Known about the structure:
Blueprint: E1 6-11, H1 20-24, E2 29-34, H2 47-71, H3 75-89, H4 96-105, H5 110-126, H6 133-144, H7 182-193, H8 200-214, H9 221-235, H10 246-250, H11 254-265, H12 270-304, H13 316-322, E3 325-326, H14 328-335, H15 339-351, E4 356-361, E5 364-368, H16 370-380
Antiparallel strand pairs: 1-2, 3-5, 4-5
Helix pairs in contact: 2-12, 3-5, 3-16, 4-5, 5-6, 5-9, 6-9, 7-8, 8-9, 8-12, 11-12, 12-16, 14-15
Amino acid sequence: MWPTVTYEELTWSSSAPLSRRMRAKQPRTYCSSIVAPIAEQDVALSAPVVTSLTEATAAIARFDQKHAGIVAPFAPLLLRGESFASSRIEQLSSSARRILEAEAFQTGRGNAALISANTTMMRKAIHTRHIDSESIRAMHALLLGSESPHIAGVFRNEPVWIGGSDAHPVGALFVPPHHSYVQSLLEDLTEFIRREDIPALAKAALAHAQFETIHPFADGNGRTGRALVHAILGQSSLTTNGVLPISAALLSDTQRYFAALDSYRDGDVAAIISLFSDAAVSATMLGSQLGSQLMALRTEWAESTTLRADSAARKILDYLIQQPVVDAAGVAEHLNVSPATARRALERLEDDGIVRSSQVTKAKRAWHAPEVLELLDAFADANRRLTFRPDL
Length: 392
């Protein structure tokens, strides 16, 4: 039997500046979660759950093998699409063009900058092979280091809650455990992640749900928790050649996603594991579809460009599939040509209708591939049925 979340009554004291009248209206107590450790917890799964888990694992393996050959050239774009989708679960959205401009030129603010930072965090996550509390903090620091440096990579030191009033946790949808428990619960969670007797996808699902229940940070828990999923899948060698766009699949039915997290807190592990199994299968289809669309677009470009087939500048086409927002300096460095050669090639592609130019800043001229950006926007928004829960 998986442990359920229980509750304890704690004294409430607001740290916000309040008038005497408002402070008198504040509640005196609130109920906070008590989260049980899971490092040594038995994981008992029904036959149907095991079957769906096995089928999903096989689908991931096939996708990863395909990724090594056919999809590999598009891996950087697939990673960005997954980052965009994970951010949209948190109601953070911006156009692919603005996000990639923020990434390439550090020009963005607001959502574009936050989503760009999420891509950086996710890139680190898929290459993380030793998962402990420090590596989790390092991921979080990448996410919020620019936007909220005072809380980036720092475990929370005050109560947090989901839903309800902004003033106090009474009546909230969920109140995570008191901050004094966070460090020990994270240590227990990373010990659970090191176990080798649990299928990788099931372990990722359970670890994600436990992480969201602990809610170790003041903000950014949902995005960090989904990055943790990629770290676990990579550490377990289930994904070795790229990213599985599981957030894009979860985005298609966030109501089921949130309900599965609630069920986990009631001691039901089947809901979250079944969700992740279904999402993993959907993710392989979404990823393959995006790869096929990008391959078709690359072929179309090759047929329409006036650049010579043996021209070094023609390699820009492959670069634009990976990095659809560029400037002449970046292209020159990537192709090992002069900035003048890169600029002439980009202007030729603009004449061919493959890229468009714009002034990102007064001193920065950039080019973007609109068809790639349209595919990215569509990918992040695919089959979306969104139910919002603040700071999942």
